[in-house]
Amino acid sequence: MLLETINLIIGKKTYPQKQINLNDIKNIELSYEPISMLWAQKGYKIKLLFHLNNQSIIPIYPSGHPIRNNDYEKLFVLLENKSIPIIDKHHLRNFLKTNPLAITNYIEKTK
Description:
There is one protein chain. By secondary structure, the chain is α+β, with helices and mostly antiparallel strands. It contains 3 helices and 4 strands; from the N terminus they run αβββαβα. It has helices at about 1-10, 70-80, 100-110; strands spanning about 25-35, 40-50, 55-60, 85. It has a 4-stranded mixed β-sheet with strand order 3-2-1-4. A hairpin with a 4-residue loop joins strand 2 and strand 3. Helix 1 (about 1-10) packs parallel to helix 2. The protein is elongated, with a radius of gyration of 14 Å. The two termini are about 25 Å apart.
């Protein structure tokens, strides 16, 4: 989903389920949701909330797909270059450059 999102934003031809015009994006909120994993382990999935100018919100959960360490940052830089603010209340952005275990440990410590 993240790759599809990036392709949409940079204008690369894809066949997405939903298209978001850059001019329609008010801001993007970086967050997470708890999930249950195998053997009753706790985990978290990354959630991107696209807040649009028409007051609607489109959630995207890219964490279920293989993501290289800099993919999130490339997306955020691209959006910020288009004057779209990234809201990161949980200070997750730096941890997205690491691995899922580091993100989980960070969230657990800050809860």
